[in-house]
Amino acid sequence: MTHKTVRIGALTRVEGEGALVVHARDGRITGLELRIYEPPRFFEAMLRGRGHTEPPDITARICGICPVAYQMSACQAIEAACGAEVTGPLRDLRLLLYYGEWIESHALHVYLLHAPDFLGYDSGVAMAADRRDLVERGLELKKAGNELITAIGGRPIHPVNVKVGGFYRVPARRELAPAAERLRRARDHALATVAWVAGFDFPDVEHDYRFLALRHPGEYAILSGTVVTGDGYGPVSGFEVARWPDHVIEEQVPHSTALHARLDGATGYLTGPLARYALNSARLSPLAREAAAAAGLGRVCRNPYRGIVVRAVEILHACDEALRLLDGYAEPERPCVPVEPRPGVGHGASEAPRGTLYHRYRLDDGGLVAEADIVPPTAQNQARIEADLRDLLAPRLTLPEDELAGLCEKAIRNHDPCISCSAHFLDFRVNRG
Amino acid sequence: MGESVVIGLGSDLRGDDAAGLEVARLLRGTLPSSVAVVENSGDPAALIEAWSGAALAIVVDAVSSGAPPGTVHMPLQMPVHPPVRAGSHSLGLADAVELGRALGRLPDELVVAGIEGGDFTPGAPMTAPVLAAVRRTADELRERLSRERPGGPRT
């Protein structure tokens, strides 16, 4: 009988740090643990006693890559608790800001973190040395997202213009013109990106995912919607965001400070681009739908490696929709709606680049935060990523460790885990005795 | 060319990791108009954007090298082979330097100043020796950059 433990020292090109340990006995996996260490618990504690206007700014600091997602989920949860709603042109402005974040985050992942896996480079830097043209295109795309965020949010990282109820000030149409100009070029780059990544050589892998994403009647949901789950082919079941705690239960697992999420009692569901695409692809902009079809995606994509194609399609959709909103933009009459604090509970969810991000706040009699819950996408996906890794490793345990490490890193990067949202530190070990 | 930029790197919510950001904040509005001041929370592409075309870029970041907290490493010797993981970001400063080099987008002169941190715990305040080092570093950079020739504002 042989007992093996394979360890991989460091997982690179993921947002944050963590660890992976795999135990194997007699050629069979006996344990697999993605270990992540989580700041959101700390943020939840830090939010208690704060004013009702503070969660958007505080939680935006959880992640340098997706601060807008945190702001939007937080704002909507607080507004729900206070009986306020942001609609019309102000909601459109929020959408625009969020599209900027999708473009920026996805462009970084597609070009600098994920594409090198398919082109045989160790890193985005190595790829840049050979293919400067491609990396420059990726940076141009990313910059278009940054500029949109800056034009609306006031600065590219941790936008300061967002507040509960809307914005501190709304941009004049002319202030958005340079961002619109850059977005027109970005849309061409996005089209080229879809065609480029569609030509990669993908492993022939499919998983029976159970997907979870928001769904909105008129949009490919990003800012708000109801929660729907399903495999993308059959019927979906759904629930209101306010029912989230009845359906998604988080539980402590010993190997991680991030909580594992269970959906209606079952572990291992998937949120993120594959889920959004499977559940909502019919709601993509016509241009993005055409590009997805030309890229051979079909209506549902269950191959996690092709997630890079879905992200590229989402960049295109974000550029296209942002341009549509910018073309029709008229300065809202007022920058925000009043949001008066009152005791109660509010729930908010939006689609962060990596998946559904849920916030819940309870405000006390004085309008201060009494409880806060934050469920980031990576914590929800953690069990599913572990399942992907089990499927990958089970038939390959005899491979050399460095080869296994490389395969695992790629499989993890498929899901673009934002471990700095849900965790901190990632280093990888496989124990084989 | 002929313009300079100071880039403060870091995170406000991890104790002494805010050192670079604080230096940038102390310098903002106190330098000749030819010197831009930028804060960056770990976006390598924005870093490259910020220093592209500059004659001089000074990047200030918190470091953890084992030296006493508050030690200022200026210039900081960047490792030839950067550690696999330099921070809680997908790409660190060393990656941004290498990426900038591969793209031909490094400033003419790049100076990295490291402020040794003592406590990087989420939610912790900055420690006293690091606060003092932040003020010292800002004073030193202000003195150095005030000698820069005035020019038009950078956008």
UniProtKB/TrEMBL annotation, chain A:
- Residues that bind Mg(2+): 44, 374, 424
* Keywords, sorted A to Z: Iron, Magnesium, Metal-binding, Nickel, Oxidoreductase
Cofactor(s) required, per the database record: Ni(2+); Fe cation
Q: Which residues bind Ni(2+)?
A: 63, 66, 418
Q: Which Pfam families match?
A: NiFeSe_Hases (PF00374)
Tell me which family the UniProt entry assigns to this protein: Belongs to the [NiFe]/[NiFeSe] hydrogenase large subunit family.
Q: Name the PANTHER family on file.
A: COENZYME F420 HYDROGENASE, SUBUNIT ALPHA, F420-NON-REDUCING HYDROGENASE VHU SUBUNIT A
Q: Does the keyword Metal-binding apply?
A: yes
The protein's name:
Ni/Fe hydrogenase subunit alpha
Q: Name one GO molecular function term.
A: nickel cation binding
Q: For binding Fe cation, which residues are annotated in this chain's numbering? A: 66, 421
Signal sequence coordinates? none
UniProtKB/TrEMBL annotation, chain B:
Assigned keywords, A-Z: Aspartyl protease, Hydrolase, Protease
Superkingdom as given in the UniProt entry: Bacteria
GO: which molecular function terms?
Answer: aspartic-type endopeptidase activity; enzyme activator activity
Entry annotated with the keyword Manganese: no
Q: Which InterPro entries match?
A: Pept_HybD-like_dom_sf (IPR023430), Peptidase_A31 (IPR000671)
Q: Which CDD domains match?
A: H2MP
Give the protein family: Belongs to the peptidase A31 family.
The record's listing under PANTHER family reads:
HYDROGENASE 1 MATURATION PROTEASE, HYDROGENASE 2 MATURATION PROTEASE
The identity of this protein, by name, is Hydrogenase maturation protease
Organism encoding this protein: Microbispora catharanthi
Lineage, top ranks: Bacteria, Bacillati, Actinomycetota, Actinomycetes, Streptosporangiales
